[in-house]
Design a protein that fits this description.
This is HK97 family phage prohead protease. By secondary structure, the protein is an alpha+beta fold. It contains five helices and ten strands, in the order βββαβββαβββαααβ. It has two domains: about 150 residues, no CATH class; about 60 residues, no CATH class. β7 and β8 form a beta hairpin. α3 crosses α4. The longest helix is centred in the last third of the chain and has 22 residues.
């Protein structure tokens, strides 16, 4: 699962726990070098609607802490407009989140999603996210830098595939989603992962590299 976070207008939070905000915006290049294309969520929203399943509101992407549901989700010209309802009368965490949102202490929404279809511009290195599978949308403390700063601790095991080391691009993407600029990510990946791969290839052993990367953490 990947994450993207955005600021939302805390004035839209009412006393009943209903709030409105954008879980994603279209057309801008975010801190991870990605652009979400208008219509990217259409198929996922249609499939969820056909099954009669509502999207959960989570706290900081913690699957064990649902706080409510999104009553209405639609794509407009700006992005993914979402109306959520916190279960303030029944869930303690929802009451806490509601108070923090109204006070302006928590001002972010962050989507958890999978990439179904994308296109990489090899000249600009911008990736266009054409079709996304929306899993959940969380209330988070830190929105993604002005529009792209991850507010959760992430582990590189999200991009380790079948016990294989990530590509340089995958490692760069991971670092960008954790809050690094694209330039910083390229520098870290080029100087860190490349040397690690070269050393392990010379030793004929990649298991140590996998262990090191799997334990890699980016703190909040």
């Amino acid at each position: 699962m990947k994450y993207k976070s955005f600021d939302f207008d805390v004035k839209s939070v009412d006393d009943a726990g209903v709030f409105v905000g954008y879980g994603s915006v279209f057309g801008n290049v975010d801190g991870g070098g990605d652009v979400v294309v208008k219509g990217a969520f259409g198929a996922s929203l249609a499939a969820r609607s056909a099954k009669g399943r509502k999207l959960p509101i989570l706290w900081q992407h913690r699957s064990g802490e649902p706080m409510g549901v999104y009553e209405d989700i639609k794509e407009d010209d700006h992005g993914l407009l979402m109306t959520g309802r916190l279960l303030v009368n029944d869930v303690q965490r929802a009451r806490e989140a509601h108070a923090l949102m109204k006070a302006g202490a928590v001002t972010g929404m962050s989507i958890g999603y999978g990439v179904v279809d994308d296109l990489l511009d090899t000249k600009t290195h911008v990736r266009y996210l054409k079709t996304l599978d929306l899993y959940e949308t969380s209330i988070v403390t830190f929105p993604m830098n002005d529009e792209a700063r991850v507010g959760v601790v992430k582990s590189l095991d999200l991009i380790l595939k079948d016990g294989k080391l990530p590509t340089l691009r995958e490692f760069e993407d991971f670092l960008c989603e954790a809050g690094f600029s694209r330039t910083q990510a390229k520098a870290v990946a080029g100087n860190g992962l490349t040397k690690l791969l070269d050393r392990c290839e010379a030793d004929g052993n990649t298991s140590d590299a996998l262990k090191m990367l799997d334990s890699f953490r980016i703190p909040q």
